[in-house]
Amino acid sequence: MDLVQQNIDAYLAARAPQLSAIAPELAPFVDFSRELLAGGKRFRALFCYWGWQSVASDGLFDDSPASDGFDAVVLASTALEVFHAAALVHDDIMDNSDTRRGMPAAHRRFESLHRDSNWLGSPVAFGQSSALLLGDLLLSWSDEIFADGLSKLSDLRARIAARSEFNLMRTEVTVGQYLDILEESAWARQPEAQLLPRAHRVIVYKSAKYSVEAPLAIGASLGGGTIAQLSALRDFGLPLGVAFQLRDDVLGVFGDPALTGKPSGDDLREGKRTVLIALARERLPASARRLLDELLGDPDLSDEQVVLLQNTITESGALDALEAVIEQNTAQALGAIADAPISRGARNQLTALADTVIRRTA
To answer: Cα separation of 327 and 25, whole Å?
Structure first.
């Protein structure tokens, strides 16, 4: 999505003089944003675009791409990427993460700025507060870009529908983030039988909807999609979004740092109560379960302890069970668009994207 990157670069270039006119010390807000937004896989932008193409192509079973509304969908896709960056900045603060995409996380960068400048007070507090504001600023910018995209559409109903989808996505992600941090604190007070469904609930609202389902719905709404088309895309997007996050959960425990840009076993140190962990707890004997609970969430886990937990999870059968769930969700997603009233070209692209999403290594 080169056009998305071009839009991002142009938008930040336009904002730089606005901030510098206020104070030259605001330069890091643009600099850090530019570097964070220079990377990533652009999945949300791609799903938005193909959601639009699903309903806007010249004939449902024609491969010819649509052109009307192109500027609107590219700007909407850009807004989704900026929104994603905001969510990452906030997520890294809450998870106390050190890195993002192989670079220091935003709050660590502000922390270093404080320390290198020999300012007064706590570098950690300054870093967290500054990154929180950066995330808020990115949220504001994403909304500006999205509104600009809507202004390119002449169809009032499409504008209203797309805005409604975008607003719902923001609400769901925010409460999903809360459910995530809630589970890290509240899991031990919940019935054992509730741990797996509660972990699944976090996946749905923190990630699955805004990673796949919402971008598809936004794109289709921009294209004036029918109820049947939107329903089919949602039925595709939600299970694929779940599979997307489940793959993230695997990478968070077993991922190669050289590919993920984060330390191996990062989710173990952060104490993430994921579906993978819930499946492992169901399968482990009491003694091994107690050890898992004791070590999970310790930020000072040694590499040896990380390997111990990785082996424990694998030997429990949880990893194989999770891979089966990923495959099941992917099959459900693909089944939803097999005979859906969407364009043939978009169906082919969504099928290819589904494979990329679940087989990625970063």
So the answer is: 49
Residue 138 · residue 89 · CB < 8 Å = yes
Amino acid 56: pLDDT: 87
- C-alpha 11/C-alpha 3 separation (Å) is 12
Q: Chain-wide mean pLDDT for the chain?
A: 94
What's the per-residue H, E or C state across the chain?
A: CHHHHHHHHHHHHHHHHHHHHHCHHHHHHHHHHHHHCCCCCCHHHHHHHHHHHHHHCCCCCCCCCCCCCHHHHHHHHHHHHHHHHHHHHHHHHHHCCCEECCEECHHHHHHHHHHHHCCCCCHHHHHHHHHHHHHHHHHHHHHHHHHHHHCCCCCHHHHHHHHHHHHHHHHHHHHHHHHHHHHHHHHHHCCHHHHHHHHHHHHHHHHHHHHHHHHHHHHHHHCCCCHHHHHHHHHHHHHHHHHHHHHHHHHHHHCCHHHHCCCCCHHHHHCCCCHHHHHHHHHCCHHHHHHHHHHCCCCCCCHHHHHHHHHHHHHHCHHHHHHHHHHHHHHHHHHHHCCCCCCHHHHHHHHHHHHHHHHCCC
Which numeric CATH code is attached to 157-362? 1.10.600.10
Asked if residue 352 lies in contact with residue 238, where contact means CB atoms within 8 angstroms, the answer is: no
CA distance 149 to 330: 31
What region does 205 belong to: left with phi over 0, alpha with psi -120 to 50, or beta? Answer: alpha
Structure tokens at 303: 């590499």
From residue 316, alpha-carbon distances to 106, 169, 284, 297 in Å are 36, 36, 6, 19
104 DSSP β-pair partners: 99
pLDDT digits (tens, 9 = 90+) for 24-59: 999 999 999 999 999 789 999 999 999 999 998 654
Among residues 279, 272, 329, which one has the least CA distance to residue 301? 272
Domain boundaries, the chain: 1-38+70-152, 157-362
Beta bridge partners of 99: 104
Average pLDDT value for residue range 312-318: 97
d(CA 218, CA 322) in angstroms, rounded, equals 29
